[in-house]
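Private note to self, pasted from the team thread so I don't lose it. Backbone tokens:
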């Protein structure tokens, strides 16, 4: 499509999961987008290939973005920005800060910390890459658009050129990275004479990956349906957001001279039944499924995104809502798993075998 940077290690592998598939009663495959790079790996790089190309084309010197305290997107942005010679400012939501919701001045950490966050996981890599980290409260994060714009104005005032990347890299331009991913899956299927999938399943936290997968799966006949597994918010919120992002992506593609008719979405739905108690907060059954994936097929998932989505996949197979040939898109997130290692003490045992799939 348009000019983009070559930041990811592509194509990522398309691999069978034979023992998990046998347990769940489906022909199960995984698209290893946890292998798009080194420390920066995960689904965000596909979006950043387009977004940072646009930033460079506009003469940007500093990238500004946001996410949770253990944001995979923020970590990927910090590392890829450094690779491109750009500075990065990250606004990270810290639920242990108290700041009034009307306060749009996040030029410094001015909240009242209840507990200092440990510098581990993604947050460690953010700082390791030299990113400027600004912790903000949940109330401030609800006004993140205004905060990012205010920071862009400050950056401009001091003579730099800012480029704002939205939460998760999720806009129409970024979503095209996952249209590309589905093109890649189509090529891999053709190379191995494989038939299309009956369903694609993946985690959704900001909507951009979903928008690209739905458009790409339809355009390239990769799958008959897409199951978007929400890890926060609700189905109605994500349905509206994904519809908007797909419209933006089609507009971008059209402006580059591509036929909009090629971008007909595959049938899709958002499922919010497996998101757990809150964003980045899982449940014992979800952790059991993650342990099962690692011990049966060596598949390491993260507790914020892929672990929740894969647990949903297992449950849907059990209920008969998923059958046939199923593709799981692994979106990465290993540093987030490392940051939550202590939460796995209840399920972690060297002698523990796979759980009974009827136990949920």
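Design output:
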């Amino acid at each position: 499509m348009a000019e983009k940077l070559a930041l990811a290690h592509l194509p990522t592998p398309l691999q069978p999961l034979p023992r998990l598939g046998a347990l769940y009663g489906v022909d199960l495959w995984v698209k290893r987008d946890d292998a798009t790079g080194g420390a920066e790996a995960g689904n965000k790089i596909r979006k950043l290939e387009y977004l940072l190309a646009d930033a460079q084309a506009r003469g940007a010197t500093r990238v500004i973005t946001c996410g949770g305290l253990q944001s995979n997107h923020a970590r990927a942005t910090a590392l890829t920005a450094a690779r491109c010679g750009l500075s990065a400012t990250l606004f990270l939501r810290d639920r242990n800060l108290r700041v009034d919701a009307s306060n749009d001045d996040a030029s410094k950490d001015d909240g009242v910390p209840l507990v200092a966050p440990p510098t581990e996981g993604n947050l460690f890599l953010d700082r390791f890459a030299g990113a400027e980290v600004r912790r903000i409260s949940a109330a401030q994060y609800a006004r993140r658009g205004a905060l990012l714009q205010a920071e862009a104005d400050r950056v401009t005032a001091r003579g730099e050129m800012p480029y704002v990347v939205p939460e998760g890299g999720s806009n129409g331009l970024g979503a095209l990275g996952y249209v590309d991913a589905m093109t890649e899956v189509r090529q891999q299927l053709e190379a191995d004479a494989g038939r299309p999938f009956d369903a694609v399943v993946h985690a959704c936290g900001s909507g951009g990956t979903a928008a690209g997968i739905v458009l790409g799966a339809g355009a390239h006949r990769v799958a008959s349906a897409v199951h978007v597994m929400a890890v926060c918010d609700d189905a109605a919120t994500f349905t509206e957001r994904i519809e908007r992002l797909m419209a933006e992506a089609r507009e971008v593609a059209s402006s580059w001279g591509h036929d909009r008719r090629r971008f007909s979405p595959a049938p899709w739905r958002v499922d919010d039944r497996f998101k757990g108690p809150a964003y980045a907060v899982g449940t014992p059954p979800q952790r059991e499924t993650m342990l099962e994936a690692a011990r049966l097929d060596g598949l390491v998932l993260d507790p914020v995104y892929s672990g929740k989505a894969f647990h949903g996949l297992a449950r849907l197979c059990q209920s008969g809502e998923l059958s046939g040939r199923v593709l799981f898109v692994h979106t990465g997130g290993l540093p987030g798993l490392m940051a939550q290692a202590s939460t796995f003490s209840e399920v972690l045992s060297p002698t523990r075998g796979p759980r009974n799939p009827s136990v949920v």
